[in-house]
Amino acid sequence: MRRLLCVTAHPDDEAGGFGGSLLRYKLSGVETYVVCLTPGQAATNRGGATSGEELAAMRRKEFAVSCELLKVTCGEVLDYPDGGLERVDYRTVVAELTARIRNIRPQVVLTFGPEGAITGHTDHAMASLYATMAFHSAGRTDRFPEQLADGVTPHRPRKLYYATALFTLPDRQPVALAPATAIIDIAEHVETKIRAFRSHTSQTPLFPRFEAAVRARGQSEFFHLAAADTPRKMENETDLFAGVSEE
Hints:
By secondary structure, the chain is α/β, with parallel strands linked by helices. It has a single domain (3-228), classed as 3-Layer(aba) Sandwich (Rossmann fold). It is 34% helix and 16% strand. It has a seven-stranded mixed sheet, with helices on both faces. Helix 1 (13-27) links the parallel strand 1 (3-8) and strand 2 (31-36). Helix 3 (90-104) crosses helix 4 (122-137) and helix 5 packs antiparallel against helix 6 (207-217). It is globular.
């Protein structure tokens, strides 16, 4: 069975950054998993919530609806602090993600780039760093060996991709995006991607700009191959599982 794991920072990232690919690959028979590090309790848009706890509960429900629309096999929201991922103990988060990789056993891992995606959000950047280290740790016996018990064994994913784009936002601080090496056609899934993002109703003020951007240039999602299990030259891809055999 082919398996794909996507590591994000906030509820709505799964739809906005990866939604088309998550749906495309699930419909092709791939098991898809999303691990979201925070419940988004520090968001600027509050959806009427009067506390961080209320907003977190609201956004967890929105995330579940989005994952259902995207047909995600399993979506999970962890409890790390929104807006504070750079202050969390690094080893703790990497250990938790390493454990997820060893249990899910994906061939492909998706996350943001270390620049923080087109918004340059620090939480996105930290999600990248945590996921990258977990990708490299999961297959080794000398990283978090305490996890290797009760049938848990090392697992080495085949590929790590960073989400990227062919544009930046002129009203944001500058970012240096990774070159796109994989272009995934999501034209058939654009409407569902938009619906999934709009299921995050607490974030309604973001809808017009997001939808306009997707309709203007969202027929593809772009990724950068950041690491692979075997040394290789860079090449252009149209399939995240190119060269990956089923296990």
